[in-house]
Amino acid sequence: MVIKNGRIVSGGMTFLGDVLIEGETIKAVGKNIPEEGRCVIDAVGKYVIPGAVDVHTHMDLQAGQCRAVDDFYHGTVAAACGGTTTIVDHMAFGPAGCSLWHQVKEYHRLADGKAVVDYGFHGVIQHVNQEILREMGEIFRDEGITSFKIYLTYDNKLSDLEVFQVLERAKELGAVIPVHCENDGVVNYLREKFKKEKKEMASFHPLSRPSRCEAEAVGRMLHLAAMAGNAPVYIVHLSSMEGLKEIEKAACEGRKNIGVETCTQYLTLTDQCYQDPKEGLKFIMSPPLRSQEDCQALWKGIERGLIDVIATDHCPFCYSGDKQLGAEDFTKCPNGAPGVEERLSVIFSQGVAEGKITIEKMVDLLCTMPSKMYGLYPQKGVIQPGADGDIVILDPEKERILTKSQLHSAADYTCYEGMKVRGDIDKVIQRGRIIVDNHQFLGKRGDGKYIKRGKSILAD
Ligand code: URP
Ligand code: ZN
């Protein structure tokens, strides 16, 4: 396959040229690559970018009594249609006291033979003992699972001691620890308090998880990582200006080994979404949406290089189904929302087309840095010889209105309903095959490959 005369964006540059893919791999990038006998794709006037990488999804997640509605087939079809050709999925917690292998095996069962894009998993640590610390090494080595998520809130949160033990082990292995940062004590106290006071509408969800809960936990985590010898740590779904200030403090100290992720929704939606007591349920997620000021602070954080990755935290539930559990009491609403398909369109439109970031920066945030953070680079996230032939062809001039009926998640809504976006995904190519053409999914169930990942750049 040869993609001709596109505006190729990779490695911080944009240049006019062709991409030659042989089999599953990029063979050459240059000018005037001969067409004879090859499948030719005309990319004149279009951007040619690496397949996007989403390092924060929750396919088929069991969360309490509810299960996310996208399994690895539907969720990855949505990813593919949104230009994402690789995901790294965060596993759900397993049964109390289970070994670290339990969820690894369970997730292979859930994903293998179903996923249509390439995929990896983050391990999840829900308690700590010598056996778990040993299994981290085995799983790192045998499975290429080189990141292990921990939570500072929810029922399976780790204590400071457990966090510290995990960080020391991660440092030893060269693993990275993604962490969900919220102060559990305050969040639970406020949820209970609002319940007693009958403040049970969606609008109390953000008030029950204030920004400083995030900031306190981010700060604590960064101090613990420093004390563990600058263990590699990655803050997931940063949502607030207060949280960003903690990142900035660490950056001013010259700290390295820290990765920071925000998500599409924290850059583009606000807590106004909770004002409608019915519709507000669609946006119940943790951390919650914040103010316009927070959105602006996060865009600034991107500009200043404090934020490395934009992911999605795709965790869809149906509005007409499980989300209604929260109709009378927001604390009963399953947390999470869809977004894996919308990310590239929304960020191109609100970021690049509106002049907040360059196209090169967008590629860095959605493709290259996620790959580097999680040991997928240079196989993924870059257009250069030797990389997988994962490409998105994006038409910057076309406009589109995002609407649920044209999206592919099994959720019955999109958080971006009616949003007019500049830029349209023309084609998505995975390892040399066109899997999406003009929004039509052409791939096959089970064609996604499990990827054993290498070390994160944070572990260098
Ligand atoms: O509300 C969210 N984000 N649900 C998914 C699980 C998590 O906290 O990441
Ligand atoms: Zn998540």
In this entry the ligands are: N-(aminocarbonyl)-beta-alanine, zinc ion
Shape: globular
Mean pLDDT: 98
| Tally of helical runs | 12
The biggest sheet, with number of strands, parallel, antiparallel or mixed sense and barrel status, is:
9 strands, mixed
Q: Which spans have pLDDT < 50 for at least 5 consecutive residues?
A: none
Secondary structure tally: strands = 19
Cα-to-Cα separation, first versus last residue: 36 Å
Give the helix/strand class.
Answer: alpha/beta
Radius of gyration: 21 Å
Share of residues in strands? 15-25%
Q: Helix fraction?
A: 25-40%
Commentary on this structure:
By secondary structure, the chain is α/β, with parallel strands linked by helices. It is built from twelve helices and 19 strands. The strands form three sheets. Strands 1, 2, 3, 4, 5, 16, 17, 18 and 19 form a nine-stranded mixed β-sheet that branches. Strands 6-9-10-11-12-13-14-15 form an eight-stranded parallel β-sheet. Strands 7-8 form a two-stranded antiparallel ribbon. A hairpin with a 2-residue loop joins strand 17 and strand 18. Helix 7 packs parallel to helix 8 (241-252). It is globular and about 70 Å long. Bound molecules: N-(aminocarbonyl)-beta-alanine and zinc ion. Residues 56, 58, 90, 313, 315 line the site of zinc ion.
